Structures are given as structure tokens and as C-alpha cells.
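Sample entry (421 residues):
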Amino acid sequence: MTIKSRFSVERDLEVLLVAYDYCVLGLRGERLAKHRQISPATAARRIQQAKQLGYIREAVLNIPPDELQSLNPHIYRADLMETVHNYIGREHLRNLIVVPSVLAGDSDRNTLTNKERVGRAAAVRLINLFTKNTSLSIGVSAGRTLAVMVDEIQQNSDIIGEWKSPPKCVPIFGDLLLTPLHHRLYPQASKYSSSTLAAELAVAIGVAAEFHLNLSIPAYIPQGFIANSDANDVHKKIQTARLFVESIPAYQMIFGETRPDDEREPEALITQLDTVITGIGGLENGHIMGWLNMVKDPVGTPNVDPIYAGPIYTDKERSQLETEGVVGHLCGTFITEDRVDGFPKDSLVETVNQRVLGTRPSDLQRCVVRARQETSGGVILVAEGAGKARAVVSAISNRCITELICDSELAEELARIKGIA
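Predicted structure, serialized as C-alpha cells:
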């Protein structure tokens, strides 16, 4: 039996930590050395040792899951994780992971953004979850942070191994009606869609040949479709639009047909999900932000394509939503700090949410309940930025999520809101 010296143990730990900093935080050279409080020469040696041991493969993290687990106190904001998690309670949030945000002075340097840090941390968590082989039906939402996560899982797919029973990867968020200008500004927009991410995740975890659905429907009924209509006509037009969308086979398979009591058909795939991966929309300077707000061309741009039906709301409606206390959206449904559904019938929040197609908060709550009864992942929320904190508070208090993976900016704002900062 070989007994390692204390120096040898500390060196081995340092190699693992440097591998994590190099791959997940994107640190290099003097910045990595400063972060780890070692000399640049030592940092270079540790990187070389990590590559020789196979922990780094072309900047891809390859630390075995059991060894990675032992690093948690060293690579996450353990102080925030413990403080916030204890206050929220494990019965409301099963797991909380907080990664350090990019420092203000480093934001313009060659380093990973907060979205990339959170996305990679989410990939590490999901790879660990998938190796347990318990997920049977995985719902995938949309967004840039989730795209980072899927990319990282693709690069580490060989860790997952073979599935006993291949899961289904199901898109749960429709397409945004982006203008031609937005497609030029964001050429990767289609890569961030729910259908694309679900398909790429299926390929990454080796189940693509088993099942594939493309949810090529709008995420919402555009406001332009009901403009200049009276109340009765608005209701009829929304019902007509819903009936049309529900006739599309992929949508019907995932969400089923609308029932009078708003319950889902038991055959609908959305009722069978045991794991959901989603982001969340929040506020910036008091205004609704996120992909749902990226549906109007910036002021002063050329005329928009005349076939463009417009965003989910008008500018006036957006202001009123903010006045009514909207703090963001969850899979497209606008939420306030204390409610995710059950809004007064005469409120604009309820009116605008009637235009949303697809996933509802009750679908997420159903998955959360299932996760308590089984060993599945539940609803894993992946988010970054202080502006999303109030929306996250609502999602937690209304039992819509099982786990939260976020950056320290968001966690610190959570602590401030809860009065524990």
C-alpha cells in the first residue's frame, strides 16, 4: 500500500483545481496563477501535469465524477451556497450550485462570460445525473446558457456511457418570432432554440436514433394577430390560433389538446417528464428582459418585414405588465414575485399569458412533485445575473424548480432580497 505524503496530496489537489480553472472558468497564464495563488511557473507545471493525467483534453474537463465531487468546496461559492440554501430550505430547493461570477475588471479580458461559466457548471451537474441512468424523459427549454451547457455535454459525451433505457429528449419551448434584423444580429438564434438544443442533447447522450421531435411552432400568439379587435373577437382569434397549433402533430404529442379545466391529457409527453432543464427571464433596470423582449427591432432601424406579426405585447402593455409587478417569465409565462399562475381575470398578466403556447408553470410543478417521489432530476433551473433573482424567488416559492445552478451575482441578490446578505 502506497502512503502519499501531505505534499503529494496537496499537489494532486492543486492539479485538479487548476484543471477546473483552465476548463470551466477559462483562466490562463498569470490570471490563473493569481486566482489559485501560485506562481505562473507552478501554474504552467500543473496544467502540463493535468494534461498528462488526462484531466484536460483540448480545454475539455475530464476529471472523473468521484474526484470532481471532492472539489466542490474549492470550485464553487460554498459560502453563498450554504447561506442561501439553509435559508430557503432543502424542502423548497433540493440542490443549489453557485459558480463565481466574472470580476468587474476581468469582464473585458479573454475569459469566460457568466453565461459560459453557469452553462459549463450545469453540464458537469447533468453529466453526473445522466451517469446514474435514471432519466427517462428530458424536457429542454431554450436560451444561450443552455446552448453552452449542451456544447459542453457534447464534448464530454463519452463519460456518460450506455443507457439501460434510452430517454426521450423533448423540446418544450416554441420558436420566437424574431425579425429579419434580429436574425442578422443574432445569427446563432436558431442554435438557441428548444428544438435544436433537444436534438443536440439527444446526440450528445447517445439517444438520437431512438426519438426526435421538432417543435416548429411559435412560443406565443403575437399581439399583431389580435390588434384592433374587440374583446369577443380577441377571444375567438386566440381560440382559433390555439386549435390550429394543437393540430400540428409534434405540438399535440408534447402538449396534447386544450381541455376545459386546463388539465393536460395523460398521453401528452409534457406530463411524463422526469427531468426539465430551463432558463428564466428577468428584469434589467426595472424592465422585462430576455428572449421574449428581443422581438422588436431597435428604434431607428429600417422598416420591418411587413409579414412580421410583432412581439407578444405592445410597448404600452409591457409598461403595464411591469406596473402589475411582473418580474420575468418562466418558459414564456409571465410571473410576479408571489405568483406564477392564478392571476385575476381582469389583469393584463392573465390576458398576455393567454397568448403563451406550450409549457405552463403547472407542468413544471408536476415534474417537481415527481422528482420528490422518484430519483429523477426534476426541474433544473440554469440562470445568471442579478436581474433574474426576483423571478427565481418566485419560481422557488411556487415549487416550480428542484435545483438551481447560478452565478454568484444572482445568489448574492437572492441573499439581499431575503435579507440575509
